[in-house]
């Protein structure tokens, strides 16, 4: 990716030389104020503490708590040490030590965060110094557990762009050439009566009636029927998504569901079988029969072929991220780094998700076959696979606005359970529903962008900003589990969209090496030797690691090397496609060989 990111909330993010400045999170800060504040942000309390910095030792300072953030400013250090942490990032608050604790700085608070860091504050033992700040922090970090509003509902920021206007379902389907004589828009779920976790507008086969859809819904987990996500502009092959069939231990069948899948197969005129990608490991899919789920058997679906993609469930992913955090924060043990990283299995899971998405994309594009993707309920692994495959196949989703549309469509409107997976405002940190599924998706996007540095309009900071506000609760974008819940809470009326912030300052998130190309499919290499840990995200809080990041000249050189590799790959693609004749018909004005020459002049 084009830019090497500076951590958003780093320990030296504020200086004291000017009277007014704008912080990296968009906050204005007057020098005569103790803390920066957003419009609608109010100060609740402050207290003298010792910040137990894992990198530089104890730091004496004052911590301020608002209804949005925890803000620490040191009082003796030069340069000034600053912590600026949105309360939504906090996962757990624990008391450290007791009244009888005698060790230095052994009495205080331990704070576990969702963004790969922990915080520890020591307090004086006299009075109720800890109780007061513990109660205030707990109240405002977990508003849902205390009958309070998310900060997003009191945020009074103003932006030049309205992010809620980015995604308009009918506009996006029209962009894809829908509806047409084979696919129609159904309003059967307009009031969420068919499926309360699906969007109100669905694209389904033209030859399937709404009565057919109701019968199919009865045989699909959570009523999540197969619906269209994307259609190939040339082959008319489609990517469909749904949940598992309710087969159960007795091997139940449903003629309406079987016929519906045949209608999907026939919609693009294909003679070959419909390809079904079940994201789960085979053994898990079989085990799901015991709870009433299952998969499409060959006997019941003779015109379909089923492939298992071996992607593990939310619990495995949660434990993998925990292991990763253990090895990257606060210290990185470099002598055992590779074996420690391997033991987390994080990159192995990234590889399996990417491999599955590549299979989906290739089957639709090269195989010219429609595909149906599901996992158990169709809102975790399914969203990863459909959105990544669409990103690989459709260059529009590689633009800033297109990626926002992709996230709104495949993740937010189709019911990825953000509230349950992230735990927004909920003190129950040990909830079994917590899982880093969306983080995994963004990591996969970053991996692809590393391999194709000119293919994406957005830069690394764009992805990091999305993840920061996945947790912050500053915007309504990721709040709640479904479109129906957001509509009930009037999220688009009462909160701001994250895309308002991003689209009001697009230059910050733009990749300077972006080359606009139409209809170029990307097929990343998903082997372990081509994947790497996203250091600028996972280890950004460690100042020692940041110091080891390349300087601007080195970074520029590395970017140019990546550009050269990308152009070589494109040159090879063109040589294969055009029987060794280099075509200059790409969207850019120069041929790949000319562009390579331009790159080489920089070395």
Automatic annotation (TrEMBL):
* Chain ranges of the Myotubularin phosphatase domain: 163-538
Q: What are the boundaries of the signal sequence?
A: none
Keywords attached to this Swiss-Prot or TrEMBL record, sorted alphabetically, are: Cell membrane, Cell projection, Cytoplasm, Endosome, Hydrolase, Lipid metabolism, Membrane, Protein phosphatase
Tell me where it resides. Answer: Cell membrane; Cell projection, Filopodium; Cell projection, Ruffle; Cytoplasm, Myofibril, Sarcomere
Please list where the region (Disordered) is annotated.
1-40, 580-603
- The Tyrosine specific protein phosphatases domain is annotated at 344-406
Q: What is this protein called?
A: Myotubularin
Origin species: Strigops habroptila
């Amino acid at each position: 990716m084009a830019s090497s990111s500076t951590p958003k909330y780093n320990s030296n993010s504020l200086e004291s030389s000017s009277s007014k400045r704008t912080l990296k999170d968009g906050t204005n800060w007057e020098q005569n104020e103790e803390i920066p504040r957003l419009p609608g942000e109010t100060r609740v309390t402050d207290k003298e503490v010792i910040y137990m910095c894992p990198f530089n030792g104890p730091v004496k300072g004052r911590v301020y708590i608002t209804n949005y953030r925890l803000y620490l400013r040191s009082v003796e250090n030069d340069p000034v040490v600053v912590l600026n942490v949105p309360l939504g990032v906090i996962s757990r608050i624990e008391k450290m030590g007791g009244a009888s604790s005698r060790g230095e700085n052994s009495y205080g608070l331990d704070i576990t965060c969702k963004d790969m860091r922990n915080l520890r504050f020591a307090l004086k033992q006299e009075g109720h110094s800890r109780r007061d700040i513990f109660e205030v922090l707990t109240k405002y970090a977990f508003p849902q557990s205390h009958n309070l509003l998310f900060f997003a509902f009191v945020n009074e920021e103003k932006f030049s762009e309205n992010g809620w206007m980015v995604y308009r379902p009918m506009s996006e389907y029209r962009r894809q050439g829908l509806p047409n004589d084979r696919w129609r828009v159904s309003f059967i779920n307009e009031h969420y009566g068919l499926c309360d976790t699906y969007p109100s507008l669905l694209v389904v086969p033209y030859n399937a009636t709404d009565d057919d859809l109701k019968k199919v819904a009865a045989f699909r987990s959570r009523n999540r029927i197969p619906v269209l996500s994307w259609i190939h502009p040339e082959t008319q092959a489609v990517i469909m998504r749904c949940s598992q069939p309710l087969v159960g231990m007795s091997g139940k069948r449903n003629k309406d569901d079987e016929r519906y899948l045949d209608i999907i197969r026939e919609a693009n005129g294909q003679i070959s079988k419909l390809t079904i990608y079940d994201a789960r490991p085979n053994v898990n899919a079989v085990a799901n029969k015991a709870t009433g789920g299952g998969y499409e058997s060959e006997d019941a679906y003779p015109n379909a072929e089923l492939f298992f993609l071996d992607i593990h469930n939310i619990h495995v992913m949660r434990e993998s991220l925990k292991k990763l955090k253990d090895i990257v924060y606060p210290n990185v043990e470099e002598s055992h780094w590779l074996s420690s990283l391997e033991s987390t299995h994080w990159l192995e899971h990234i590889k399996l998700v990417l491999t599955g998405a590549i299979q989906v994309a290739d089957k639709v594009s090269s195989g010219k076959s429609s595909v149906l993707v599901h996992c158990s309920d169709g809102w975790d692994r399914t969203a990863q696979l459909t959105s990544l495959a669409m990103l690989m196949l459709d260059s529009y989703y590689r633009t800033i606005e297109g990626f926002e549309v992709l996230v709104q469509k495949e993740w937010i409107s189709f019911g990825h359970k953000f509230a349950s997976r992230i735990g927004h405002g909920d003190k129950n940190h040990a909830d079994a529903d917590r899982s880093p599924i969306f983080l995994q998706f963004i990591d996969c996007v970053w991996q692809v962008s590393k391999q194709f540095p000119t293919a994406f309009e957005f830069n690394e900071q764009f992805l990091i900003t999305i993840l920061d506000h996945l947790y912050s609760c500053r915007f309504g974008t990721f709040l709640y589990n479904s479109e129906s819940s957001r509509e009930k809470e009037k999220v688009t009326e009462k909160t701001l969209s994250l895309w308002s912030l991003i689209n009001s300052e697009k230059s910050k998130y733009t990749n300077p090496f972006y080359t606009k190309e139409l209809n170029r499919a990307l097929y990343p290499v998903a082997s372990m030797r081509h994947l790497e840990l996203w250091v600028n995200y996972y280890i950004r809080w460690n100042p020692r690691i940041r110091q080891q990041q390349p300087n601007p000249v080195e970074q520029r050189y590395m970017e140019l090397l990546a550009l050269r590799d990308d152009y070589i790959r494109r040159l090879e693609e063109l040589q294969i496609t055009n029987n060794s004749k280099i075509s200059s018909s790409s969207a850019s004005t120069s041929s790949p060989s000319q562009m390579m020459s331009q790159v080489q002049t920089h070395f």
